[in-house]
What does this fold into?
Amino acid sequence: MKKESQRKTVIGVVGTAKNTGKTTTLNCLLKEAARRSITVGITGIGYDGEEADTVTLLPKPRITVQPDSIVATSERCLETSTAPVEILHRTGMFTSLGEILITRVLRAGLLVIAGPGKREELRMILGKMMQYEAGHIFVDGSLNRIAPMSAVDSVIFTTGGSRSTDIALLSSEMHAIESLFTLPLVQTGILSAPESIEVPLLLEARDVDDLLPVFRRGQSTLFISKYISSPALARLTDSCTNGRESIQNIILPDPFVLLMNENIVHTYKSIIALQQHSISVSYRCLPRLEFITANPFFPRYSGSTYSPQFLNGTELLNHLRSSCSTPVFNTQETESSLLFDACFQ
It folds into this structure.
């Protein structure tokens, strides 16, 4: 394959739940890259690529790789893959499925992906993959293992009936996700100002209670460098919006810190409440939200088995498109070239 001359880009593909079309979306992008003779890299956060869903036992698409693709996956995954590979580098990093290896695909086939679960490990693996001439790199992930996604340049979200059969709820959630990606980057110099305080974690409401007295002494900027939980965010929002604190700026590492909380809509409402009280919320790092894909499929449990069912695809797309300004596609009906171009426009 030809070497890609464009700037190398790392794109995360994030499923909001199992069976929302993440693997289908990824396969469409890989297929189009191969058609255009672009060498790509592929890795993932955690485990994916199984033949059937481990809960419903319904068939699910596996990741199809093309010759010359650079793939980072765990060693035992190669035992069940149909694509032969050449091992390029042993990373010395391990998952439950063995050491993560950087490989080159020798012949097209199906491959199981199990990559790193930590942000710094993912960054190191991405850097090594680029040394082996991977152009654009795709990272397979999901909401329940989203923290390492801060290493990507841009992100695609997949949602659908498997997340919820309530179309209005799906639309509200995707609107909240999109909105969290519109918060600004932190202003230069604000973190180094003497009025700034850094804390790595706020896990419980009482952690916020212990911290807040500092802000009654004139400090104005709070940098939460790793994570804030839903209860802690709720307590922080309540304290700030009731005018008891001097906090003017809240800085987070990236949007994924907020998406780790289970109720994304509630999290978004907390951010809105802070902004309405003239409290700035910003990020140190902000990947682009490229597009959203919608999958009407969901598994329905009946008796002792699951069967495939489908939401009204037109209604699902219309609701999502009316709620989000980000492009929304149905991967079952959209040409691969359109999805690929949407990544690199």
